[in-house]
Amino acid sequence: MQNIVIVGQGYVGLPLALAAVDAGHNVVGLDIDSRKTDLISRGKSPIEDILDEDISAALATNRYRLNSAINFDTSTEVICVCVPTPLNQEHKPDLTILEAAVSAVSQSLKAGMLVIIESTIQPGTTREVILPLLEKGSGLARGQFFLAYSPERIDPLNKKWNVKNTPKLVSGLTHESAKKAQSFYNTFIDNTVISSSLEIAETAKLLENTFRFINISFINEVAMFCNQIGIDVKEVIAAASTKPYGFMPFYPSIGVGGHCIPVDPIYLSSKATEIGSTISFIDLADKINRGIPQYLIARAGKITNGLKGKKIIVIGVSYKPNVADTRETPVEDLITGLQEQGAMVFWHDDLVKEWKGEHSTQLSQKFDLAIIATPHDYLDLSVLGAVPILDTRGSI
Q1: 319 touches 377 (CB < 8 A)
Q2: What is the pLDDT of residue 394?
Q3: What fold is seen in the domain 233-391?
Q4: Sequence ranges of the chain with CATH classification 3.40.50.720
Q5: From the candidates 80, 82, 226, 260, which is the catalytic residue?
Q6: Residue 260 annotated to the active site
Q7: Which of 69-73, 167-171, 184-188, 346-350 has the lowest mean pLDDT?
């Protein structure tokens, strides 16, 4: 049993906290959002991936407690930092939240403690940014504390892969740091793999999601091609999937969203530019994916014979089916583009409920067009009646 602090109680930190509690550790979940910590303290889950009863069970052990201040006592042995690393308004990596969290952690850091960064970052960030912040804030010298990097691998609502059975990459500033992190994760994760350097683990995380990013952009282009020649891309994918080797199916969509897929490749591309290297596939894929909403707007205009004054309902505004997470959702660009063309745009999403100062609109037959952006399982499209439907998950 160890005394653990986990900074960030969202899609990454909360599942990690519950897994650590289940393994017998004492866990303090820290999050500067007091509304979130209050909610969790009452046994209520802020995310779809975690049930209320899972939180209640953890709280009942008396080994899990919440706090909205990032500080901890000297009995702490491991600190995991699981905060967002988004893109800024210039579509560039933004480490502001991470740097603030690490600086706050450094104020309570004592000799012998292990700090593990799980947030997605550029290669070199743990060594060149995180380490100096910890040294400066704590007054400790290098070697007096342990530092590791272990990228999160969380896929919300994935019924097959979870914290326990998803292999975990671990790396450390020193070999001892890596071994200490591996020992911690081994208490509740089936398979941990040590990378030989921090930079390898940092880059591996970016590679994983860039692979998906590029293939999603490619299948979106194939879907456009299939629409142009009049065949169903879903049938094409099914046919190609009969090949038992050398092929992995990807499916068309309105684009990419969430905290990983549209963000991580930009972190890799930005680092490549910084060191004078190039990864042109990323820039091309980003251009394709960010252009999908405009392509769909043009499709919508053809269906409705012009968009000005037309009533359009966009169905699903989260980035992924069956979750309420709207981070980096491409639906925002779709709605904005439709409005710029003069359309009266409404949106429906009973999971999100409220977004951008507006509330979800109920489905009905009072629209000129329905655009399925994110198909949640609860949807009953029969209530649309004869309203034309543009399905972004089909032959776009």
Answers
A1: no
A2: 62
A3: Rossmann fold (3.40.50)
A4: 3-196, 233-391
A5: 260
A6: yes
A7: 69-73
